Amino acid sequence: MTEKIAKILKSVIKEDVEVAVSASESAGWRIGFGHYSSNVAFKLAKIAGKSPLEVAKDLAGKLSLNKEFEKVEAAAPGFVNFWLKPEYFQEELAVILKQKDKYGKNEYLKGQKIMVDYTDPNPFKEFHIGHLMSNAIGESLCRIFEWNGAKVVRVCYQGDVGLHVAKTIWGILQDINNFPKDSANLSEKIAFLGKSYVLGSQKYEDDKVAAEEIKEINKKVFERSDKQINILYEKGKKWSLKHFDEVYKKLGTKFDHFILESSVISDAEKIVREFLKKGVFEESNGAVVFPGEKYGLHTRVFINSQGLPTYETKDIGLAKKKMSLEKGLTSSLIVTANEQNDYFRVVFKALEFIFPEYAKISKHIGHGMLRFASGKMSSRAGNVITAESLIGEVEKLVEAKIAEQKLTEKEKKEIKDVVSIGAIKYSILRQAIGGDIIFDLEKSISFEGDSGPYLQYAYTRAKSVLEKASNPPAGGKVKPSLKHAPKEISELEVMLSRFSEIVERSGKEQAPHYIATYLIELARVFNAYYAKFKIVDAKDEYSPYKVALTSAFMQVMKNGLEILGIKVPEKM
Predict the structure, then answer these.
(1) Percent of the chain with pLDDT over 90
(2) 40 burial level (CB within 10 Å; 0-12, 13-18, 19+)
(3) 3-state class of 174 per DSSP?
């Protein structure tokens, strides 16, 4: 609708100016702001030498007879406000009820093929809350792109080689007698790897002898030259990947490609050495570096003095791997913590010389940190917060919250699983990508206010209304119908009509928080409607319309949560 109104505005404007139209804030149309508004009069006033209000009144006069609008008014200091006819909103309800799960989808990104690389946990290290953030953001972006018509390719890059592996294996060797047996459960195995990594990381920093031993192990892992290390490596890697698969399943993510670091090293090193000869890279103190200072960046090592490729080189190999796996990519995004912003600026600059076409479509999306009272958690310090432990803590709180409810054990488990993941994902996605998030356990599971469970509860409340409408003893059977609508529309119809625009805006700006913010406002409006009106009443001539409106709300809420990667429970 914003585009449609902008087009109508342009038809009466002679000057070549950009015309912007925006939806009014919630309920703004009730206090004179219209359903939509434009500030184009301010731009035209400068050209015409008139006041913005004078120009706005002139535009409103020209547009007031347009059949699309119920009325058009000018408002100080120079806005043009538009009210749409009730029929528009009622027709949109019909579209929602007809399209159901497809409502909100568009073709803004049709023809685009977007690869999104996200989550990226490293075997031999625990799946921590940083990976959880990357997963929530990356998965929601994938779904936003798909709802905007793009073909999306999901990629997970997992670091199965490198110094972190050597640190873990060194830690394992210090406690080899307690190495988990094959019969041990996976949680015990992962905990042992995590403890070994912490020990190895600490000694690498504090003990020069241990640091040299770890470097030697790192070399042996690359060379596959030590039988015992090879056995530990294969078992640790197998455990980690199996554990990651469990987490992906819980989070509702299915990747199209898993790429291991070990699969890109050989090609990557050859490429860097080839472009060393071409002058893209330089030799420095026995290492191969990219001279970032030449381009206003910083210099980074691509092959270290031991002759081993670094993460930077592997990312060059990863780029080649991605291009070979998927032809015709129009965008290639990498979602990681914003601590790596400068790192990727250097890598992408190097890629400009090696794979220039790929560099043009590459983008790094840096997100903030998930923080608690103690600040950023560090695996180096041994107090890493794993995804598993955070999910577990939230599950306990949800379990306690629903303990007294009359539900079956199966229903309680479903609610616990769905609400816990929803609470965490919403807490991550509710604000713009890039900023740090202060995670509050109690607030995250609240059934009131700004939380995932609040959205899920609004959905299940609407669902219970519809169940009541189809169950005569509960209040009289009422079939949903839009045939007999009230003369005046409510705030709920207005909010529902904006979902498609929010989806498109989220796609254009790569911003899941627009969806999250919209859903919270939509839930608030529905809850207010629910409190004000008796929806199911066989004696009320407007009850069929109100039931249909409730059904439309439930559908839009479900679609919006689907985009965020949040499931809806059957009961709460």
Answers:
(1) 82
(2) buried
(3) helix
Phi-psi region of 385 (alpha: psi -120 to 50; beta: other; left: phi over 0): beta
Type of residue at 302: F
pLDDT in tens, 138-150: 999 999 999 999 9
Q: Tell me the pTM.
A: 0.92
Alpha carbon distance 563, 571 (integer Å): 20
Instruction: Decide if 76 contacts 117 (C-beta within 8 A).
Output: no
Characterise 38 by phi-psi region: left (phi > 0), alpha (psi -120 to 50), beta (else).
beta
Instruction: Choose among 388, 473, 324: nearest CA to 129.
Output: 388
Instruction: Find the angle CA(199)-CA(202)-CA(205) to the nearest 5 degrees.
Output: 145
Q: Over 80: is that where the pLDDT of 302 sits?
A: yes
What single-letter amino acid sits at 450? D
CA neighbor of 386 nearest in space, from 121, 122, 198, 128:
128
Q: Give yes or no for a contact between 335 and 141, defined as CB atoms under 8 angstroms apart.
A: yes
Q: Which two tokens stand for residue 378?
A: 């560090």
Q: Are 421 and 415 in contact (CB under 8 A)?
A: no
Instruction: Tell me how long the chain is.
Output: 572
Candidates 1.10.730.10, 3.40.50.2020, 1.10.3720.10, 3.40.430.10; CATH matching 406-563: 1.10.730.10
Query: Tokens 């819980």 identify what position?
Result: 250
Give the separation between CA 154 and CA 512, rounded to whole angstroms: 17
| Coil vs helix vs strand at 300 | strand
Q: What is the DSSP letter of 372?
A: B
> Which residues are paired to 36 by β-bridges?
23, 82
Tell me, what DSSP letter sits at residue 393? H
Burial of 177 by CB count in 10 Å (0-12 exposed, 13-18 middle, 19+ buried)?
A: exposed
- pLDDT tens for residues 148-184? 999 999 999 999 998 999 999 999 999 999 999 999 9
Backbone angles phi, psi at 367, to 5 degrees: -105, 165
Helix (H, G, I), strand (E, B) or coil at 357: helix
Looking at residue 181, what DSSP letter applies? P
CATH architecture observed for domain 2-84: 2-Layer Sandwich (3.30)
